[in-house]
């Protein structure tokens, strides 16, 4: 459409409606209304990933009120927890001479090495205390195989072992996922990308995430997500709960 014809259409619509009667500006995109076939996936909003935790993400706790406000707009909510064994293969401490935030090659591919974090059953691995998701239906724990990491809520880093989440969502007739939580460039991005691979429509709600941003990982993640059809939105793009 040319600029001229779109402007004519806009002016025509404004004139037809008359001044002052439209609640939203005519040029705003229609809000997204998550229905029965949509699920909110709240990724790893755990003590380990906020200030005072073992792998704090800058501003991590700021996603909590945003996610709490989104929750009533969804009929389906899935929560994930990073849930590692002690001595997990993703921990730098499990590899002699290796430092956190470096990378090594494991049998399934490249692995970033992290500080020990989110160990099963510890307070560090618990969900953030202010997270209010009373209607959440499923908690997926991931990264519990000692030798394999799992950023994604769908599939472990060996790219073979599944968590069962795709089957669960499909069995319940869900075809669209909205991903929020921590961290944008690791567990959120891998979850959204695997959702696409499994055939779901996928949105990432940017202001409901915070990133680690290691060596340009955040920009790389957004680029990869765009290429795979993951849509980047803001929490304000989602409509209030119906009814
Ligand atoms: C995550 C690094 C290591 C995440 C989990 O939740 O994004 N990042 N484990
Ligand atoms: Zn982890």
H/E topology pattern: HEHEEEEHEHEHE
Proportion of strand residues:
15-25%
Radius of gyration: 20 Å
Structural class: alpha/beta
Uncertain runs: 1-21
Shape: globular
Task: List the ligand species.
Answer: pyrazine-2-carboxylic acid, zinc ion
The proportion of residues forming helix, as a percent range, comes to 10-25%
Task: Provide mean pLDDT, rounded.
Answer: 92
**Number of separate strands:** 8
Read across the widest sheet, the strand sequence of neighbours is 5-2-1-6-7-8
End-to-end distance: 36 Å
Q: Report the biggest beta sheet as strand number plus sense, adding barrel if it closes.
A: 6 strands, parallel
Contiguous helical run count: 5
């Amino acid at each position: 459409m040319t600029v001229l014809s779109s402007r004519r259409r806009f002016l025509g619509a404004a004139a037809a409606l008359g001044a002052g009667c439209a609640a939203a500006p005519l040029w705003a995109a229609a809000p997204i209304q998550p229905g029965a076939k949509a699920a909110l996936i709240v990724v790893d909003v755990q003590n380990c990933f906020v200030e005072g935790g073992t792998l704090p993400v800058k501003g991590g706790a700021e996603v909590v009120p945003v996610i709490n406000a989104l929750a009533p707009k969804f009929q389906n909510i899935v929560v994930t927890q990073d849930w590692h064994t002690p001595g997990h293969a993703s921990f730098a401490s499990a590899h002699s001479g290796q430092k956190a935030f470096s990378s090594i090659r494991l049998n399934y591919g490249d692995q970033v090495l992290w500080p020990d974090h989110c160990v099963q059953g510890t307070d560090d691995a618990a969900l953030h205390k202010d997270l209010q998701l009373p209607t959440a239906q499923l908690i997926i724990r991931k990264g519990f195989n000692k030798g394999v990491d799992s950023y994604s809520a769908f599939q472990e880093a060996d790219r073979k072992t599944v968590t069962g989440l795709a089957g669960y969502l499909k069995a319940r007739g869900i075809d669209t996922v909205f991903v929020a939580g921590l961290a944008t460039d690791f567990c959120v991005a891998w979850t959204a990308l695997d959702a696409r691979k499994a055939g779901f429509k996928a949105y990432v709600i940017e202001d409901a995430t915070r990133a680690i941003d290691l060596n340009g990982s955040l920009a790389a993640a957004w680029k990869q997500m765009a290429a795979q059809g993951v849509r980047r939105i803001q929490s304000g793009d989602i409509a209030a709960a119906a009814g």
